[in-house]
Amino acid sequence: WGAAVALFLMMLLMAADALGRYLFNFPVPGTQEVVANYVLVAAVWLSLARTELNGGHVAVDIVLHQFPERVQIWISILVRPIAIVPMGIVLWASFDEMVASFGRQALGPVDLPVSLSWGFVAFGSASLIASLAATTAIRIIELRQPGAATATDDAGPSNDTELEGSENYGL
User: Fold this and answer.
1) How far apart, in whole angstroms, are the C-alpha atoms of residue 14 and residue 19?
2) Residue 109: DSSP 8-state
C-alpha cells in the first residue's frame, strides 16, 4: 500500500505543479525535490516485497523451463537466498546512512529530513529480504508436499515466478 500511496501522492504533486505553472505561472515550490528525493524512492522501494510475493520481478527463465518441475523448485530454493545477500548489504548500508543522517535537512525550498528517504530504502530492503525468505519457505513446503513433482517428471512449462496460493499463506 505504501507504494500505491506514494504513486498517488506523486500524481497529485506533479498535477498541482503543472497546473500551477501553466495556469497561474506559479509552480508548487519544492515539487521536483520532494518527488525525486522522497516520493519516487518510496514508490520504488516499498513495492519490491509485494512484487516478489506476486512473482512480478523480471526473470530469465528460458532455460529454467527445460528442467523438470522438481529441479525448477530446487533452483528457486537455491537462488532466492543468494538474492538475500546483496539486499542485506543494502539494508545495512541504508540503515547506517539513515541513522547517520538524522537531523540533516535536504537542501531546497522544502526542508525535509534526509533520513526519511534512507528509511524508505531500509524498510523496502528489509521487506524484500522477508519476502524472499517467505517465498523460499513456500517453495520448500511445495517440495515436501505429497504428490510434489518428481525428478522423473517431464520438463514442461512451469511458472516459477508466480507462487500459486501464496495469498493463502497470509503474505
Assistant:
1) 9
2) S
